[in-house]
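Service request form, structural biology core

Requester: graduate student, group of Dr. S.
Request type: structure prediction, single chain
Budget code: on file
Notes: please return the result as structure tokens.

Sequence provided:
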Amino acid sequence: MAGGSTIDQRIRAERAKAAQTQSRLHQKRVELHAATLRYDDLQHQLGETNAAIGQVSERIDSLQGERDSTQRKIDWNTIQLDAARRSLRLHDALLKRRLVDVYEYGDLTYVNALLGARSFSEFVERWEDLRLLIAANQRTVRARKAAEARVTAIEADLERTRMELQREEEAQEQARSQLDSLADERRNLVSLAAVRKRSVATEVAEMEDLSAAEESELEGLIVERERELAAAQRAAGVAGAPPSAGGLGNFSWPVTGTITSPFGWRTNPLGGGPEFHQGLDIAAPMGTAVTAAAAGSVIMAQWYGGYGNYVLIDHGGGYSTGYGHLSAIYVSVGQSVTRGQAIGAVGSTGQSTGPHLHFEVRIAGKPVDPAPRLH
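Core staff response, request fulfilled:
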């Protein structure tokens, strides 16, 4: 059995190499996930910064409109103020001339008006008219002064408002300038993060190809060992053991649950681009028993990179099944198992987003869709 010993050594060596590659692949996928999160976070920050720039720009436009409106009010009040001042100056001039006339000549106008009355009743009427005229002149002067004070106060308030708007507009312009600088910085960071994300994604894809090739090589070695064992049995005249109950390619469900990710292309749940999912993800509670899908021999029962705790069973005829992310392993390498025998428990080890079983069916080392083969 020297040949058998040699191929077993090759299988063990290939398993070790595949496990190492899977471990590196797991770390690289974690790195890709972190790079994706970093890229998404920077994109979000850039979006927030651009939104803030938009808000500041809207506020600046609003302030400019308010400032223009305030300036128009200032201009209008300035016109009113000038008119009030001209009217006040006119009334002041008339009043001063009247006072000068009274001082130099006496108040003959009023006296003549009174003395020209032809009767006492007319004198009283003229006296009342003159009294009302003088009061009206005084009220007019006071009203003009009050109007001037009001216009001056309004103009001062408007000027203060204009200055406040101008200061706020300058502050908003400064804020927009700072945000523009921040946006430029974040755009650069997003570009760098995108380059890093693409680079790691390329590395992941290359390592996935390498891992698939190594797994295929391992399966090929197992098939080769089966052929050697079968040839040795025929040479010794020993009948080979029957294939798994129910026939080759006929498998029972390893656990009861909901299929959360079918076989085939999908978006990597941990980030990155699309990936080819080589099995079925079956959600089930943590610790649920996982059973062998068919009778066979355990050829791997160990930690296997992104698969976490992993069991691989050889069923003969080139068929094998894999069980990943287990929380516990109940079997060991070389152990024979029967269909329905508990081989482990549902877990979330390795590269996993929650408790589930990753179940694979392989023919000559190549993954095939398990769904049509489950009964």
